[in-house]
Amino acid sequence: MRLPLWHLTLASIRNRGLATGLTLVAIALSVALLLGVERLRNDARASFANSVSGTDLIAGARGGPVSLLLYSVFHIGDATQDVDAARVDALRRHKEVAWLVPLSLGDSHRGYRVVGTTTGFFAHVRTGDRQPLRFAAGQAFDGVFDAVVGAEVAEALGYAPGARIVLSHGAGEFSAAEHADKPFTVTGVLARTGTPIDRSVLVGLAAIEAIHLDWQGGSRIPGVEIPARFVSKFDLTPRRVTAALIGLERRTAVFRLQREINASAGEPLMAILPGVTLDELWRVVGGVERALLAVSAFVVAVGLAGLVATVVSSLSARRRELAILRALGAGPGDIFVLLMSESVLLATAGGMLGVLLLWALSAGLAPWLMARHGVQLVPRLLDQRESMWLAAVVVAAVLASLVPAWRAYRYSLADGMTVRL
Amino acid sequence: MSADAVSLSALRYRWPGAARACLDIADFTLAAGERLFLHGPSGSGKTTLLSLIGGVLRPEGGKLRVLGTELAALGGPRRDRFRADHIGIIFQQFNLIPYLSGADNIALPCRFSPLRAQRAGNVSAAVARLAAHLDLPAGLLARPAAELSVGQQQRVAAARALIGAPALVIADEPTSSLDAARQDAFLALLLAECTAAGASLLFVSHDLRLAGRFDRQAALTELNHAAEVEA
Q1: Which domains does chain B show, CATH number per domain?
Q2: Which residues of chain B neighbour A334 with C-beta distances below 8 Å?
Q3: Which residue in chain B is spatially nearest to A323 when comparing CA positions?
Q4: Which residues on chain B are in Cβ contact (under 8 Å) with A18?
């Protein structure tokens, strides 16, 4: 005879609509927060890992490995130093190196980073689950003033092959110094990858040299102006690059080559393993993540405490009701189950509401997160990890519900069929 | 049914922690089908006696046979089941679960006792029949119990005590919250329904004016040797 208790449970919950509704909202919000933090953390890691798939080593000026990874791949922060292009070129000819893609950073286009590179970028860079880059429209750059834009850039600024764009000096969103004298033509738009490439404008290394022919130390050389049509008369071989992505013939050689690069004579170079450096990055931010998770777990605990408080405070008003149920034949066990199922039902409903809330929120915020922070949220209701968290919340709710249920049990034993207050 | 509805002898009960017994009854019988008025002023151990007969409390000693079953020998859950199956109870007031409708309140014992549900047959038909007998319009039954008047609530409580034909109905001061005119009407309905259902009625009240309408009357103060002497 458990069915009748359900009927009572639902009627009793309906009876205390407002308090119950507010409790439900509190639990839903706390669960959405907890699962949201967990989702953001996992998806951020997955997005970052997706951006470096297929690259075995990243070489750059000596400094912090994490900062090299951040500015070369994720466009976060700036390179403080660049490296000799000839050194990088020498590396390309190393017998263990299968491919090498140089990167030259420092310019921007309306807030998007400009990446000077070679056409090898399109052939070798992998994203996601080792997927090669694809063109959604057009093709790779060919001439000096050709550019390829990422999916996000094309979408946000409405670019298609044939569009004319002007690059700016420096990475600021409102850069005053523009390379207006040397406009570029978009030749291709890349398909969406869910990585920082979507927010990049890719040009040839020669283009970077060309737009800086009449510049020195970050500003225009007064009185010198070299029109675009004359740049071919200059030597556009790059002298400095920011970093290089390297793919190896055999992955087993990765540590040996890393040591070799780090120990090489001349201008100090550094090579990092992107995966290892990412792990290092996660170790750094891991403490913050754990703190966030702990805070959200506490918020859930507060939500559950609110639930228990609501049910417990309703109990004294319900002693008479419990006594009536006892008189009708309900055992103390029935009373226990009644109160228990009431709290557990509320907590579970709150949890499910929280999942729906998170689903709606992440659907709404995904484009913004992608555009501003390069974190791709995978659309889903609940994954395995999150289900575990939700299950933990429900288990906590069951434990918390023992409090009112036990109290009601004690009341019903003490009161019997009459309320002795 | 040949057995008495209630048969006690040498029944003693002491509240946990209390120094002396609050109930000590040498002998008491309620015959099957009998309608008994038990005069019980407050302090006479009325609540305790009803809780014992209802199987909520367990006697310290003595015999406690209800409808031929020795209640003292049953464990807690079986006493709860026995109460659900065989006893209908009406309190002084606040008898109903406030957030359930009148009809749901009447049907409630059938939810706790499959036996009473079975005896009632079609539960909603049984609810409608009892409600009609007790002058409760159908429109009233759909409303939450908290919206009914006290008199209506007591009639709903009576219908709830009678549904599924329990062999014993216990009424604890059911008329004390009603005015005189309604008391009479309610008592007439209750007695008629118990007679029609063949149920024994144990009616406890301090109001001796009602006693004349019952088959027999007894005084708890005389039965209970442990009763406190009251003015």
Answers
A1: 34-57+76-223 (3.40.50.300)
A2: 80, 112
A3: B95
A4: none
Q: Closest chain B residue to A331 measured between Cα atoms? A: B80
Nearest to A329 among B47, B99, B109 (CB): B109
| Tens-digit pLDDT profile for residues A179-223 | 777 889 999 999 988 888 888 999 999 888 888 877 766 667 777
> Maximum distance among all alpha carbons in chain A?
104
**pLDDT tens-place string over residues A304-342:** 888 888 888 888 778 888 888 888 888 888 888 888 888
The residue count of chain A comes to 421
Identify the closest residue of chain A to B97 by CA–CA distance.
A321
- In tens, the pLDDT along B179-229 reads 887 888 888 888 888 888 888 999 988 888 888 888 888 888 777 777 654
Q: Which of B47, B104, B113 sits opposite A418 (nearest CB)?
A: B47
Q: Determine the distance from the C-alpha atom of residue B175 to the mean position of all C-alpha atoms in its chain, rounded to a whole number.
A: 13
Give dist(CA A334, CA A405) in Å, integer: 10
What is the nearest CA distance from A406 to chain B, expressed in angstroms? 17
| Half-sphere exposure at residue B55, Cβ-oriented, CA atoms within 13 angstroms | 33
Of B198, B200, B206, B204, the C-alpha closest to B171 is B204
Residue B171 bridge partners (DSSP): B90, B203
Interchain proximity A331–B91, CB inside 8 Å: no
What is the pTM assigned to this prediction? 0.71
